[in-house]
Amino acid sequence: PRPLRWLWRRAAALPKEAPPRDADADAALALALGGFDDPRLPLVLDLGCGFGTSLLSLSRPAGPVGAGLVPPRCNLLGCDSSALKTAFATGTASRWGTAATARFASASAERCLAAAASSSTSRLAGVLVQFPTPYRAPGGGNAQLPTREEGYMLWRVETTPAIHSTSPRRGLEHAQRKAVRRGLYSPGPEALADTTLMLSMYARSLSRASARSARSPPLLALAARTARRSVPAVAAQRRLLCDASGGPSSGVVTALDILRSVSGARYTMDDPLRASIGEGEPISAAIHRMVDEKIGSFVVRDAHDRVAGFLTPRDCLRCIARHGDKSRPGATPEGWNVPVSSVMTPAKDLVYLSPSDTLDEVRSLMALSGRRHIPVLAGSTLLGILNPKDIAKYIHLQRNASTSAKSDFVQTVMPRKGVPIGTKLTRGSGLAAEAALQLYSAVALLPHPAKTESGGEDAFLLGPHMIGVADGVGSWWEGGIDPAAFARGLMFASRNSCTKLKREEELDPAKVLLDAWHKMKLSRLIGSSTACLVSLDPHKTELRAANIGDSGFLLLRRQAGSSSMVEPALGTLDSAAGIGAAGRKLHIAFRSPQQLRAFNTPYQLGRAPDSGDAPDDRFETPQDASLVRVPVRPGDILVLATDGLFDNVDEEALLDTIEDLIEGSGTGASPQQLADAIAARAKELSLDKSVDSPFAILAKDNDILWGGGRPDDITVLVSHILDRADARAPPTDWAAVSGPGEPPPELLEAEALLAAERLAAEAAAKAEA
Q1: Shortest CA distance to 108 belongs to which of 40, 43, 41, 159?
Q2: Coil, helix or strand at residue 79
Q3: Which of 7, 25, 216 is nearest to 108 (CA)?
């Protein structure tokens, strides 16, 4: 469970405490051992239990960690030098109803082992030895790490009783020798490398011995996950874990494996400077090097050879489109000679991979970040750059290792080479030239309980062709600035941009957001907000969206029954739904991506009091928006909301709310009924302190203590996607509205100025004609 992970990381960050007096420790241990409901059950010890993370997990009826590690029915005793931690663990066990088999005491490892050995009723079945960081990493590590070799809890002096109780003949020295042979361990205080790995190997050997002898219970060592890991240790640990689970050692592919196997990906491992370019060099030089040297991307270095940013072919194309001067054929255009530093993605905005990241994690990062070229870093050292081509090549080589190069080409490339003569393009890939779909929408807005009078800081756009939300950043109150003003102004400007762009050209959320942002810049309004705009494509059965920050939308689709099986739509989660969970009437066909600088720090459009006319890197621009196109079908339900919904209601609870309302309504729930019900459920959960919300779970994953819901403004827009022939389809000629409240006067003045300039330009054009 995630709360257990948070407790584990929290314990890892606390300083080490001195153990209690022997008399106090013995009393606490006697009380704990005498508190078991059935003291005759086998006993498992956890030496250095901290907040009791491991034992609390093992004590659960379906503990996720316990399978195969401890006897099915046993007593669990945890000891730690901190009385505060063991008291917390005792209270948690009591609340969880597991205190009958999980007890905790403040005592040293030696006293705990002695008490267990002298117990007349309990048989020692195993010892868990766990500590936050199994080795010291250069420049990092954990506050509890000792400065001397003898200070390690797994030092032979302290663990001798446990080792001899589990295996008299095969001790820690055997594990050390085995670790040395595998390159995981070197004797000496400065190189006491991965003790947990060493004990993992020892535990496996003991487990095998235990199968042959009932007198040899296993010594268990649970590997730490939050410490920085050296590349060899991680690779070895993955092999060990895979070996222990019975799977092949090649079952886990890491980013380092791909770098080592694919020549195009590993060039920086041999020659880091080859894949780099100076930040002051012109963009034309970068383009020529990409072509001449067949390099797909560059790491940009500063004058001190530090990583300043990253440059991809897409960055170069964007520069050419924006700055290119084509007036002088045959010459290098002046606009292309801008420095690389003005085009690159700066280092602060980069995403990167670690050598130990698995292939699934690599692909997930590429999908969620939208980046195709990603550097692989080991600490502060660049190992290489990965892209989708490298991944595809690695997978092909692994699956076809025994085939020849000629056979590969003949069987794979030749049958697919050359486009057939007469191939034609069809508009929309067979979709109707004019999509006969429309939105039937409604909105519900519930402000924060403390902001009822002001109406909250959220804003919305509700129109026949486009809907949107904006979430004002509340911290502006600290500077005496109304956080709602920017969000309301942005949605009002988007409403007017909708009217103008619908009249002049196709309605595109990205264009609407850009036009509204320019108006906000002209108004010089102070503040910031997230924004998400969604519309239907006028020619295809698709939704288009532009999102900045942590607002977003879910697309819900009815389950396909056995008698009405529908082909899963490309670009959706239809296939992953399977098609859907058993008993569900709806499944989530698509969820929009979110954008965060850090936890609870979303991307945002805005302006500060000291912002000038130059770009302000404290805020994003519409060019940073996540742009989405997703296929839709008649009958789909679109739920667009600010983070007040997503921080408090998980997807299962949202589906329950909608399905209950649909089932309870004989004629089908209207968008307004759905929006009201969803918003009410979100508010209810936001005020519930007894159940961790999605926000609380994520906060604990980021080492932030938060429990229950998160009170916030809640804005929900629900749209039915209908066929225009549907009797429920509303007219499409009504004017879009934004709210709540009136737009800020600064924006109205900017709009009036733009209107006057436009009229003057039209008059001048008529006069010239």
Answers
A1: 159
A2: strand
A3: 25
